[in-house]
Batch of 4 targets.
Target 1
Amino acid sequence: MDLLREEAREIPVFYEADICVLGGSCTGVFAAVRAARLGAKVVIIEKQNAFGGVATSGLVNIWHSLHNTEFNQQIIAGLTLETIERLDRIGAVIEHQKNHSSGFLLNTEELKIELDRLVQEANVKVYLHTMFVAPYVVDGELQAAIVENKSGRGAIKAQMFIDATGDGDLCDRLGIGHRISPEFQPSTACAKIDGWEPGLQGFDLAEALLAYKEEFHIPEGFGWGAQVPNSKHVYMYAGTRVYHANSSDGEALTYSEMEGRRQVRAIMDMVRKYGQGNQMSLVSLPSYIGTRETRHIDCHYQLTGDNVLHGHRFDDAIANGSYRVDIHHQDKPGLTFRYLNGEQVYIRPGYPHEVGKWREPVEIDPTFYQIPYRSLLPQGPYKNVIVAGRMLDVDETAFGGVRVMVNMNQLGEAAGVAAYIGLSENKGFVDVDVQQLRHQLKSGGSIVL
């Protein structure tokens, strides 16, 4: 690779804050809002034109249950519940009670606006269309984030930094250790399609995808979808699969975006050709492909599949979840579900389900699992950096369960509150008193167990 040398130059300081959040998914927004509500001066940086991450820019409009697997105990609240309640007041959410696959269907366009309102009400400084470029480190201390937007290149100075970029971009560029699983879960490009459900009446999609996959160059994968609340026939469909393309690599991400869109068109062309007189219209495509997994940052504790599947409790737990382990495979089509009750199901569309057990029966099955604070604390010298989101330290099995949005939302809230405590007491994230953190989370509306 040829190298060029960029000349040193002075750049302006765009803004100075107590806490800088890089990444504006719901995870990042909730981090910023929780810290700001406690009194911190917070700035949030987002590369897209709106907040919400995969939920909005990726079109994924499902949040999972806030209850345990038996639906007899609520285990998630905080800003996730508050946001659902805000959307419900304008008819932008549908609740599916006692459903392991879908807790809430969201109108994610309305979610964009509601997230705007959340950060504005909390007086968070916002930079949209702004890309994180590099960390600014002096004498081994992270002092600022270098960013670029329409105003050019500038610096955001802060005392505490929350990496909510999804891919762990800040940690990566600080040289903090990380890994990318050789079996990282593949990406999916979603689409909103008008007339999808009426158009598929009497048409077996799974059978057609197997029969015509070679004609339309559609890889085998797994498809699902959900209606858009209060729309007549608009359906969000997630049926594409981009294998072996790492979204933390620029060229691979470019390929993924174009290949995902190609597959959307191919699936629709197939339905148009072999369906029964359907009248479909492509309404919207994502502005960012649905990336499931890239980097995992080396933290003080790696959450394991055994921890999740056996419902291990942690003294430093800052999030609870009940979504089953859901592994989208790289090496074969379909996916594997593992449940806390010991059941396992491999689903390959068009084939019979393969049902079995991942463990023998036990006297009492766990009904939820937890994520510890330590899994957000990067190893290394930078005490003012924490991760919040899918780049947390987990193994492949644990990631299959914890990666969903209602779980990641809680990591953002924990990171925001931890940043405020560290700021107030002049401590790094690793030295924050975890019981104080858990108490503060509970005081702010989170469920702490």
Note: Residues 250-274 form the longest helix (25 residues).
Target 2
Amino acid sequence: MQKGQDDIRTQYERDWDRIIFSSPFRRLQNKTQVFPLPEEVFVHNRLTHSLEVASVGRSLGKIIGKKLSTLEQIKDDEKARPFYRNSLKNVIASACLAHDMGNPAFGHSGEEAISKYFKKRDTKKTEDLEFKEQFSNEEWKDLTTFEGNANALRILTLQQKGRNKGGFRLTYSTLGSILKYPCESIASDKRILHRKKYGYFKIDEKVFLDVVTELNLVRDNIESGIAYKRHPFVYLVEAADDISYNIIDFEDAHRLGILSYLDVRDSFLEIIKNSPRDDINWVKEQAKSLEGDPNESIAYLRAKSINTLIYKCADVFWKNREAILTGDFDKSLIDSIPELQSVMKKIETISIDKIYNAKSVVQLEIAGFRIMSGLVKDFVTSSLTPKYLRDKEQNKIIGLLPKQFSFDESNSPYVKVMHIIDFIAGMTDLYALKLYRKLRGIEL
């Protein structure tokens, strides 16, 4: 993390460049978003999704930045006004670019699969009780509920062996913008928006506290555990993600023949009719003129839908800016647009019924469960076996760890496991599949 130096780029533009040229970001191109990655029909992966979220986020940041720069307490501030007017859009875009970097292979099922090994050992059996005793309550919670959001912060700030000090060395503003759930695992609470999940692993607590202190985040008043209110910029990053996946998943489902042209068209038109910037009749005529290529017609309506949601979310942010600035706004921006709740709920219902439960998606999730949890079992079992007790196979497995993920034998069990999870969570779908098959003798 750093506060900036003289450069042809601003420090916030440099954040963008460091993320986009990084290996963890490139690996997103072979990580599933929702659908398996087919050979013939193009659908979104984690990388294309992240780029589109960044595009939406930049628009949101630009709209809100210009508005904030006109406020009395900001417009005469020689540092604050140029930041909000010229740089906020770059902060939000960079955070959006990085928001999924902590997600493992095989979509959201990959997160749960990483924790499956530890959940299965959370029993009253003597050997499992002894295993669990190696970890503190906070550490055990991290391992049984692996969280991609927390892993993103770890990837961006971790100094791996043989790598540059300080990780990506991003600005505090960008790091604060990805802290969607600024709390530790034991403080998470599904009933509360900013603690629905958690934002950092116990091993990264010092880094987390450094970020929230620098940004003056508001401490959450809870009885136990560490938790803070969100940074205001998080709402814009979250909105960009919500807008993108809700709309893009529908478009992909149409391309794959899971949803009909009429179903997707009508849902998008239901959103667009609420836009004060578009004549709905003109939009309908344009969409109809493109029906010779249904994919192109849907792409046109997708663009208009996203544009409508951007301006609607920006309006919600502006109207609720006081509650957002104090950390007391307890809904996402997209869930705070009354006139769109009906159609967004419809899209969510259809997505769950027909997209996320589509046969190909379910098959991928099952495969992901077996592959990721199998790899965790192989590597964790080997790493936590004392060196003098490891058999030849376990030594060979440990030898497969790349240098940057290796651990010292004197490390605590939790630190060893986190090094293993760093390795496995960073794998692409294809690499995880190949390694799993080789370790099981299915492929040589």
Note: The domain at 105-145+358-444 is CATH 1.10.3550.10 (eoxyguanosinetriphosphate triphosphohydrolase fold).
Target 3
Amino acid sequence: MFAVPGTAAFTAGSLIARLPFAMFGVSAVVMIAGSRGSYALAGAVTATGLTVTALVAPWTARLVDRHGQARVARPATALALLGSLALVLCVRYDAPDWTLFASCAATATSPNTGAMARARWAYLHRDDPASLHTANSFEQAADELCFMTGPALAALLCSALFPEAGTVAGAVLMAGGMLLFTGQRSTEPPVAVRPPGTRAPLRAAGMPALLAVFLATGVVFGALEVTTLAYVDGPEAGLLIGLQAGGSCAAGLVYGLRPVAAPGDPRRLAVCLAAMTALMALPLLAAASGGSTAVLALALLAAGAATAPTMITGMASVQRIVPPGSVNEGMTLAVTAILTGIAAGSAVSGWLAERAAPGTGYTVPVAAALLGLVAAVLRARRPTP
């Protein structure tokens, strides 16, 4: 993978820049819930930020496709960092609740580093499907590595230093990582001129069903995170969230080593969703049975095993169906659907954490995975080219 000059450097920058995405959610929940005493408010604020990001991200990605990654990502990152720092100041100085929503919404210009990295691999391995499958699997494992270490790091910083430490550290990492990533110009995909009459990625055949799958997967992520934070209610919650990502990371690496004839096969995606639905029941059973934290940790570790294969197959499907010159926009639409789902899952689980029995929120990932499975099965019945 790293034989091409510049790939190791852009991968390092990508990892550093995307780690804060796994930190900001936990940091904001811990920071706001600790300051205002409400998980519902914390969940609503983070959901607002994710929702606005979901609306803005496709436009940012379209600008990246049209004008280049470095030219757009750097100023967009600067604007997002200002929003993060504003959120810290508003919490620190006890500003009105509405300022928290406004500050979090201001972070919406954050470029999708994972999508830009995948766009680089798609460009470098455009004539080698096997290598592209390995690269996509590696990128998903990298995502999970960030989500494995990010929440734990955020929880540790917020509890060991001060409540705002996780957000501040995330802002510093994002700035440094983005500068390193965008500095590797030799691997940056060239700006492609879209031919007149070319369909937008959103209108590509099979894309709506794929977005429904990604939306449901996002609900799984958001619900697992907030429910675990509320159920465990301590610094070890970040470690448990990291275990779920750890199971997915390991599964992604194993999946990437297997040769796949058709990476975007709709039937394979349906199988992955079926496995996810079954495995997401494990945390619910652990919580309902009153099991120890260790039992819940094992359940979350096992639950993550189907996540990476699902995401890898889904992203491969997006790369397969979007028009040329729109890869970044297409994958950002997928991530936008995930963010929208995370926002919904976070809000619903935050509401359940305050109004229902502990662990009830683990029903949300099961239901969401089942809905994703339905969308995948319907798409598999009418395969796209």
Note: The mean pLDDT is 81.
Target 4
Amino acid sequence: MTRKSGYALLTALVAVAALACTAILMGTGALGSGLRRPGSVPQIHATADPAAAGSWTGTWAAAPATAEPGTPQGRPGMSIRDVVHTSIGGNAARIELSNLFGTAPLILTHVTLARAAAPGSPSASPGSLTALGFAGLPVVTIPAGGSVLSDPVRLAVPAATDLLITLYTPYTSGPVTYHPTARQTSYLAYGDHAGDTDGTAFTIPSPYWRYVTAVDVWTPGLHGTVVAFGDSITDGITSTVGADHRWPDFLTARLGERPDLPRMGVLDEGISGNRVLADAAPTAPWDGPSALRRFGRDVLSRAGVKVVIVELGINDIIETPHQTDAQAIIDGLRQLTREAHAHGIRVLGGTITPFEGLHGYTPALDAVREDVNAAIRAGTVFDAVVDFDRALRDPHHPDHLLPAFDSGDHLHPTDAGYEAMAQAVNLQDLLGSAPASL
């Protein structure tokens, strides 16, 4: 579904939401708040609710990577308007906020959610801006290292639509938890403008997502959530800003074009520079914790997850210290599969894409990639294979990206390359249950 078609559905969804959500939101049993107070376990486990009225499904997410540089006191006295793009629509919504990399409690005094008036706009669609509460209160304190799930609100959320999530605090706090590679323009304003429908106060553009880590929607008839779990290639680091041209976005579009398949939300949990085995180096904290360490946080805790698509391993090989033991990477990927299976989640795994021409390339490092890919293609690592390598490589020079798919650094794809990656996913492989073991 295109962005324009998502907005075209708005009028119909508003009418549906008014009827469908009244009964849902009368009580908090099915949709209860996920507030985590100081001293409680900060991890949110927002699994799908089997209530007959519908279920929670993830429509958008971003993995918190590190603390934003230059924000030792947070962003006091500023409104942060994060712009995020939905994958699936629903009749009610809730958001997750994270203070994972903060060093002090974050006190938010005003939080709102709205549909954007137009793609990428800081202005809200008239009548859509809604104040969010937390355990029935308009103010929430998120402890350092913690996260919080908002109370649900009635809001018609179309698929393929931009939402505005606006946060304000007048207080100092620790460093801002953020996702640095948004490929989406968000906005800042001085003062409390969280309740503004007009976006004119938001004069400071920003390339980051701050504090917001997930948006879930409540709706009947959804099959669940697909999580794309990976590194900069999943993060879409070279995709066109504001165009929603990461490969998970193209996968969302493919699913929207197939009425014969169950409707599924798609979440992008990529972190640029991420590795399977090693945490970020102190010199590059934005690379995030290792995939093994963050899998529970960024995959298992997401709402309604049925399938995860893993795209990882290249940074283990090319970043120093180089991981030259292919078996170690393979074992790490198998561990992700075992953890997913323990939660009934099916795992699709991508082969590692070519990188000859990249600074630091050596045939010995490429041999490690080939060994990992051989194990993946043999079917001993994941439930099904997505051959990203075959989709992107130059058939005449298979250690290179196809020129049309090479962004210029010989590692990251162009928009066309990201679309080719999404086309490589067999949509039928998203269905079915996870086996107990490979």
Note: The first helix runs from residue 3 to 8.
